[in-house]
Design brief:
The complex is a heterodimer of chains A (about 450) and B (about 260). Chain A is about 40% helix and about 15% strand. Chain A is an alpha/beta fold and about 450 residues long. Chain A has one domain: Luciferase-like domain (TIM Barrel), CATH 3.20.20.30. In chain A, strand 1, helix 1 and strand 2 form a beta-alpha-beta unit. Chain A starts with a strand and ends in a 5-residue tail after the last helix. Chain B is built from 9 helices and 8 strands. Chain B has an 8-stranded mixed β-sheet with strand order 1-2-4-3-5-6-7-8, with helices on both faces. Chain B is globular, with a radius of gyration of 17 Å. The termini of chain B are far apart. Classes of the chains: A alpha/beta (about 450), B alpha/beta (about 260). The interface between A and B is medium-sized, with 20 and 18 residues.
Chain lengths: ~450, ~260
């Protein structure tokens, strides 16, 4: 099993009004960056980098970064910059970018160059994930939503070719043209870094991932619909002529550990405070249905079972009843809903603790819950989402220490017992034990 | 409220450049072709009815809108104009009055810069196509579509009277479908072509540009920008009218079209 840690790196500004949920509404693209304080930004970027290093020291196999734009809930607008720094200041952990928003790159060659650079500096520790992004990302970088899925696929094909085919070559696709592809860098790993595809709700993406035999990571969705979505991956895998195993499946979920149950309960509550991801469950912000429903961005009819959970549907400009309606009964059309849709309230915290959307406790109480998640979903890759919302550096560090001493070793044992190999134990392309080709640098006698 | 089909005229499908294009026709007289707005064709309204009293009105679904097949290859308004030039050829229309509404006005203008042989005159009603010298074009991509349409009206009761409290799913489908095609051809730059102003002096046929001076979608001063470059342009500013001026003032607009088409 691959065990990683994740935080959105929220822009925590105690004077903002939304931090600590003091009542100010936070909505997609509704906050001017006139309020942005670079001094605070500087402190937070450095704090989060320190915590990522501490995660490596605690024994995590991986640290995961993500990318969003024009929003306070995630400071990873230039995630490759963070990844490049981590490549240099860490030694062992996989650096997982989940993920770069492919369709918003007008020049994916530049992305191929950045990622290859990160892979070399890290000596082959990059895991690269690619996403289609939400409406927020398309708007922020002005990428045409109707061509989002086409651009995702073409940029992927192009980057893989740029990494694996000696140049120069010419690329003339539907959305990208390059007259001279010959980047003066190549990925350290051979043939290229492992690719992991994260997602929440799009069926297309799961199908495409399964067809490419890429590990698919569900992002903090509820257990039962996640299980059903994993079944869909397995179904596509079967149709594609192979059997999907734990190595193909990953799951991100909120886990915080603390010194006492009381402290864990109070600190876990902070997941809901601060500028949380209004795209996923447990945030107290509001999603703008307009932005999540840009013309042609996603196929409204082709959603995973996770889309039937209210917050996910709302974040896509739909309501859960409507997603269910596509299979079931007749309900009012969600497009008649005007204005923002309200997300979680503090009252939902206990519910989230009950339904495993948030796991917070001492190692003793957290471990059986993690076991339940592993038994239910059987993923080979997991990420603990921690240190988010309104959590302080101290909150994060207490959790990291206990993760290192009590949680990670125990979860590793569980994974062995439950036979949950990760994508670095069983090769997702062959279902054989993972045995990558030697890095090009090593074959050449240089590098590592 | 559902779409009212009681006045709906005959429609037929014409294959143009490999695309099935849906057209509606009514009335007799000189041909008049209407190019609809980015919101798509909804129904045969008062405006179309008044025009069909004295014109042979041809009202197509623009390529990629309504029941017309989507040209997957189209990337800008001009691509639709090329298809429409061929539509005029295939229908063998002569002395056409070409009426363009909003995005349809943009497409009509692009069309005329490329081929005006079949045109008698052009009427552009709150047309897109030019980058406003002052102000900005309201971005429909960042607001709810019902709100976008409300912004086009001076009297918001027209919205409720037409659509009712709960907007019919068929209309929501048309809006959504229209928005996708609009985004495919006009996501960026939004609703204008930087090259177009340099080509307006090609258009020799008389062109009437109509704007309401309460237009919240396109600054009405864009009308003067058209006139400044059109060799035979005429500007009508309707006092107190909004963007959807043909909806709120169908008689006044159809009278202007009649006068201009003589």
């Amino acid at each position: 099993m691959l065990i990683g840690r994740f935080t959105e790196r929220p822009y925590q500004d105690p004077s903002s009004g939304y931090f600590g949920a003091t009542g100010r509404s936070i909505q997609d693209l509704s906050i001017s960056n006139g309020e942005y304080d670079p001094q605070l930004g500087s402190e937070l970027y450095n704090r989060y980098l320190d915590e990522q290093v501490a995660a490596e020291e605690a024994g995590f196999d991986a640290i995961m970064l993500n990318e969003h734009h024009s929003t306070p809930f995630c400071m990873g607008g230039t995630v490759n910059t963070e990844a490049a720094i981590l490549a240099r200041i860490t030694d062992k952990v996989k650096i997982v970018i989940n993920g770069n928003v492919l369709p918003i790159w007008d020049d994916p060659l530049w992305l191929a160059e950045e990622l290859a650079t990160i892979d070399m500096i890290s000596k082959g520790r990059l895991v690269t994930g690619w996403v289609r992004g939400t409406g927020r990302e398309s708007v922020a970088h002005n990428a045409p939503p109707p061509f989002n899925w086409e651009r995702f696929q073409e940029a992927h094909d192009f980057i893989i070719k740029a990494w694996t085919t000696p140049g120069p070559f010419r690329w003339e696709g539907e959305h990208y043209d390059f007259r001279y592809v010959n980047p003066w860098m190549r990925p350290y790993q051979n043939p290229h870094p492992q690719i992991m595809i994260p997602g929440v709700v799009s069926k297309n993406t799961v199908k495409w991932s399964a067809e490419h035999r890429y590990p698919y990571l569900m992002l903090a969705t509820r257990l039962e619909p996640t299980k059903a979505s994993f079944d869909y991956y397995r179904e596509v895998a079967h149709q594609s002529g192979y059997e999907a195993g734990p190595q193909h499946l990953g799951y991100l979920f909120k886990v915080h550990v603390d010194e006492t149950e009381e402290l864990a309960y109070e600190t876990g509550k902070k997941f809901l405070d601060g500028p949380g991801n209004i795209f996923l469950e447990g945030s107290r912000g509001t999603a703008s249905p307009v932005l999540q429903n840009l013309p042609g961005l996603t196929d409204r009819k082709n959603l995973l079972p996770t889309g039937e959970v209210g917050f996910v549907a709302a974040s896509r400009g739909r309501n859960a009843a409507d997603v269910a309606r596509d299979n079931n009964a007749n309900k009012p059309d969600p497009r008649n809903v005007r204005g923002a849709q309200t997300q979680a309230t503090l009252a939902d915290y206990d519910t989230q603790l009950e339904n495993y959307t948030i796991i917070s406790g001492t190692p003793k109480t957290v471990l059986p819950k993690i076991r339940h998640v592993l038994e239910t979903l059987r993923p080979g890759t997991i990420f603990f989402w921690d240190g988010d919302g309104a959590m302080t550096h101290d909150d994060s560090m207490r959790s990291l220490r206990l993760m290192g001493s009590d949680v990670i070793p125990a979860v590793k044992e569980m994974a062995k017992e439950l036979d949950l190999p990760g994508s670095f134990e069983i090769d997702t392309k062959t279902n054989e034990p993972y045995n990558p080709a030697p890095a090009i640098a090593e074959v050449a006698g240089g590098g590592a | 409220m559902a779409i009212d089909t009681s006045n709906e005229p005959k429609s037929r499908v014409v294959n143009i450049a490999g695309l099935d294009i849906n057209i509606r026709e009514a009335g007799s007289g000189k041909p008049l072709v209407i190019l609809h707005r980015s919101t798509g064709y909804l129904q045969w309204d008062n405006f179309a009815t008044k025009l069909s009293d004295s014109f042979h009105v041809i009202y197509p679904d623009l390529p990629g809108f309504g029941n017309s097949e989507r040209p997957d290859w189209a990337r800008e308004a001009r691509d639709l104009s090329i298809v429409l030039i061929e539509l005029l050829n295939v229908l063998d229309l002569k002395d056409v009055t070409l009426v363009g509404l909003g995005l349809g006005g943009f497409i009509a203008t692009e069309l005329a810069t490329m081929n005006q042989e079949r045109l008698n005159n052009i009427v552009l009603i709150s047309p897109a196509g030019l980058k406003p010298d002052e102000g900005e074009i309201l971005d429909q991509m960042l607001i709810e579509h019902s709100e976008y349409i409300r912004q086009g009206l001076v009297d918001s009761s027209h919205f409720e009277n037409f659509f009712g409290e709960e907007i019919h799913p068929d209309i929501l489908d048309i809006w959504e479908f229209s928005r996708i095609m609009t985004a495919r051809i006009s996501w960026s730059p939004y609703m204008f072509n930087r090259r177009l102003p340099h080509l307006l002096n090609i258009i020799k046929v008389p062109t009437l540009v109509i704007f309401g001076n309460s237009d919240n979608v396109i600054p009405y001063t864009v009308g003067q920008q058209f006139i400044d470059s059109l060799p035979d342009g005429q500007l009508e500013i309707i006092d107190g009218a909004g963007h959807l001026v043909e909806w709120e003032k169908p008689e006044e607009i159809s009278t202007l079209i009649h006068e201009h088409s003589r």
